[in-house]
Every structure is written in C-alpha cells, then in structure tokens.
C-alpha cells in the first residue's frame, strides 16, 4: 500500500503584532475581557499578500524535506482569503517555489481547509496519480475584519503553514480522516458583500465576517468531537493511543471543551492561540509545525487533529508521524521587512470602519 508521508514542514508568521491592549485603542474592550473569553493575547497582521505568506511557508517545508520545488507534482492551497480568484493563488505559489508544471489548486473549506487539503493530496498519492505534494494553508483574516465590532476585531490574525507529502511504503501520514459539512445552518458564520451574488454595480458596503458565537461554540465542540470518534474507529485506536491533539485554534474555550469531551490531558494538547489568534485554515498548519519545534511531536507520534469552519464544514484527521523531527535543510526564505507596526498597518481600515 502507498502512504503519503509528511517529510517537510514550515511556517510563515508576519512580524507585526497587535496586542489586546492595542485592540482596546480601537474598540471598547480590554486584555482581561479578550483573554478570559478567547485565550488570545495578540495576533499578527500581514503587510504582504496571502500568496507571499504561502510561498515562504512552502519554501521552508521544501527545505525541511530536502527537495526542490521542481520535484513537486501538486501545490494545494487551503485559503478563504486568496490573493486572486482568477488566476487561482496556488498558481502563483507554484511559480514562486519553482514547481514548474505541477498542478495548482485553491481549496476553500474555511477553518477546516488544511485538513480537507491533506485528505485530497493524500488520496492522489495513494491512487498513484502523484508522488509529491505541497499542502499549504495561508490566510489574511484581518482583511475581513470590521474594526468597529469587538467580536470580530479581537479574534483573527494572519499567517501560513505548509507540509510536504511524499509517497512512501512506510505506514505514516494521514491514516484516518472524516470530513463533512452541516449546511443547514451555514448562515451562522459567513462573509457578506463578497462573491458574485453581490451587485457589483450597486455596492452595499465592505465585506464583513459575521458569526453567532454561541451557536458556533456548540456545533464546533460536538462536530469536532464526533469526527474524532469516527476517525478513532476507522484507525482502530483508543484515546489512550493518541500522543498529541492539534486542534483548530479558534477559541481556547472550544479547545478546552473538546479536550474535556475527549478526556485528553493538557500535556498532549497543542495550543498557540494566545500568540496568533484565529488564522482560519492556517491554524492547524502552524500549530503542527510548532508542535514539532517544541518537541511535543516525537518520532512515530499518533496525532489527532480537528477543525470546524464556515459552511459549516468540519474535519478530523489521524496522522502518524514519521521518524524524523528535524529539518534536512534550513531555508533562508523570509518576508520583506516592514517598518510599520500592527496598528499602523490597519490604520486605513480602522478609519473606513468608523
């Protein structure tokens, strides 16, 4: 049997931050209110495009795997904030990393996007259609934020993470997966004034992310937990077999509720929402990289991951890590410098929302 082994991993974190105290200069809130309700202390704001974030993360993942872009057969980009719709943003990432001729495709399942994309690329490798893929998740969620509304202003951030998948005979990579969508309540989390449903000749205002927090909380905990149970059954594993839980970083309370429902100890859960906020599809990709960097993921670790996003999409994945937890090579790829602070980067958007 052919498996899709993770051989490389990399991330791209924009340098500019906005702390909770700085957010309180924009909307009526404070650090205690944000921290106790979300677990977030700060978030990153990108001064570059989604494509540039995705490119740098992919370059780090390729170096980590010890291969070149020319070795890649597929570039799959998970994002709900593409730089361009036509041509797709993945095609620009493909060009930037030198993956000439590789298939390039964007996929949008919102916060579940990275796990959807991993499933897609794994299936193509297992079917023998391709041998190597870059799966990258990149988001500029701050582009959608209405800075006049506290609920959305405090939650979201920007960033990217990527993995390289390679065909292997060793049982590793994605070994169990469950994806789905509960579209009956898709309006509780959506972006208005965006897409071809809007009248472009009669603008109705800026695009804005709208959500019903309490309803999302209930559905997120239930949906992710049940998907994890399904994946455990597929893989014939028990919760005691799981070494690391890497959940979507949307809200610390959701993570804790899911952790409690699955009865998983704190030392097995990867949490970095305090540093980055909710970066949608990129949260799990970034968290996976940092779990390796911090030694939480060890050789042959059993990893459970779950996400819930707009649509309402959901996903859970069982990933078996390989033997290597250190990069083969280190890339010097980085974002261009910026002399602006996080608040300065959003200054125009804040004024437009007031």
From TrEMBL:
Keyword match Chloroplast: no
Domain Beta-ketoacyl-[acyl-carrier-protein] synthase III C-terminal: 232-321
EC number from the UniProt entry: 2.3.1.180
Domain Beta-ketoacyl-[acyl-carrier-protein] synthase III N-terminal: from-to ranges: 106-182
Enzyme class: transferase
Residue positions of the active site: 111, 248, 278
Classification via InterPro entries: ACP_syn_III_C (IPR013747), ACP_syn_III_N (IPR013751), FabH (IPR004655), Thiolase-like (IPR016039)
Chief place of localization: cytoplasm
Compartments where found: Cytoplasm
Domain of life: Bacteria
Pathway(s) of this molecule: Lipid metabolism; fatty acid biosynthesis
Reaction(s) catalysed by this chain's protein: malonyl-[ACP] + acetyl-CoA + H(+) = 3-oxobutanoyl-[ACP] + CO2 + CoA
HAMAP family per record: FabH (MF_01815)
Assembly: Homodimer.
Domain remark in the UniProt entry: The last Arg residue of the ACP-binding site is essential for the weak association between ACP/AcpP and FabH.
Family of the protein in this entry: Belongs to the thiolase-like superfamily. FabH family.
Protein purpose: Catalyzes the condensation reaction of fatty acid synthesis by the addition to an acyl acceptor of two carbons from malonyl-ACP. Catalyzes the first condensation reaction which initiates fatty acid synthesis and may therefore play a role in governing the total rate of fatty acid production. Possesses both acetoacetyl-ACP synthase and acetyl transacylase activities. Its substrate specificity determines the biosynthesis of branched-chain and/or straight-chain of fatty acids.
Protein name: Beta-ketoacyl-[acyl-carrier-protein] synthase III
Source species: Pseudoalteromonas aurantia 208
Gene: fabH
